[in-house]
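WARN no homologs supplied; continuing
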Amino acid sequence: MARKILVVDDDPYVVKYIVGVLETHGYQTCSASDGAQALEVLKREKPDMVTLDLEMPQEWGPRFYRKMTQIKEFEDIPVVVISGLSGIHHAIRNAVASMQKPFDPDKLLEIIGNTLSERENAAEDPAP
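OK structure emitted
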């Protein structure tokens, strides 16, 4: 079964680009244009991972992240921050990676692939 990734960004061109990259490489996707919408999509779609912009109208990425991690079911979903803001690596401490726009799509795919593989291996091999 293909892994599902939630793409959260207010720029429709960025969403279309990321979704295209991910779907070309076999991932399922869902998307949202701000944090409030992302929370609804998260609950409905239950993705395996999230790519998250920080600066969006209505509700910023860090606020969405705080709300997401307060829900037990979603607290461990890995997040990759993709933003045009500087200092993005400080915005969400537990992000698996932070990428500055414009970003290298191959690097994003590598991060996603490695993260999902590690999670899958950890689920198959629980610690004693």
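Helices lie at 12-24, 35-45, 61-69, 105-124.
OK
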